[in-house]
Amino acid sequence: MNTTLPDLQAVARRAYERGRVRLGASRGLLTLALPLAAVMLLGVPVPLALVLGAGLAFAFGYAQFKGQSMGRGARMGLLLGLAGAVGPAIRCLLPRGLM
Amino acid sequence: MSALADGDRDAFAVVFRSVKPLLDRYVSRLVRDSATRDEIVQACIIKVFESASTFDPERDAAAWVLALASWEVRSFRRDRARQIMRSGGDPTRVLKESGHDPEGETLRREIVDAVHACLGDLSLTDQEVILTMLAEERPPTPTFRKKLERALARFKSKWVARYEHDAS
Q1: Interface of A with B (CB under 8 A)
Q2: What number is the ipTM of this complex?
């Protein structure tokens, strides 16, 4: 197998992008747990959860694929968004008398 | 490497320029044949850049790259050993093919170890029969030939269960 240096560099670059796509896809898929939890625990309508979940998975996955400040920002945004959603979610789940 | 793991595409060329010579040097110490070496280096480069996004910045980059390269060299040798074993598995042929290069020597040792491991799975009687045959202390009796035939059949089934099932 005689591969020239520029060829090898192009092969390596494609391998790197493949790795980034895989990373973005796996992290994007993880966010699908959120709409699933919203449907099962909070009774959010399925079509709404599907649309928002797909949008979140795509946006988060793309940000992870791009990386750098966009990736870090998306992770921080997801974390803060989760923190903001936990309070109302707990309120919905608790029996009315306790609140 | 940390920048590349974070998604900084501008760091790609710099990392490539440092990783390629490192892998060339490392693999050439382990593999003498130039065609095989190029093949392994290319496989290592693909592996390193594919996994670059999962690199932990706390770790030493060179050690991480060399660990991946060692794994690739090992996988390559294992695959080659399986290919040779599948295409006949004649130990004398393997010995001739391995010649005197260190890679061939390692391959030969791996095959001998595999044969020993498989032999260990057999009963003591079967082991004795096969070892007697290998030592050429074979008494030319029909009873021995029959015993040998059975022992080899059992060895073959153990071999298939251990390695060929794993290779498929």
Answers
A1: 1-3, 5, 8-9, 11-13, 15-16, 18-20, 22-23, 65-68, 70-72
A2: 0.79
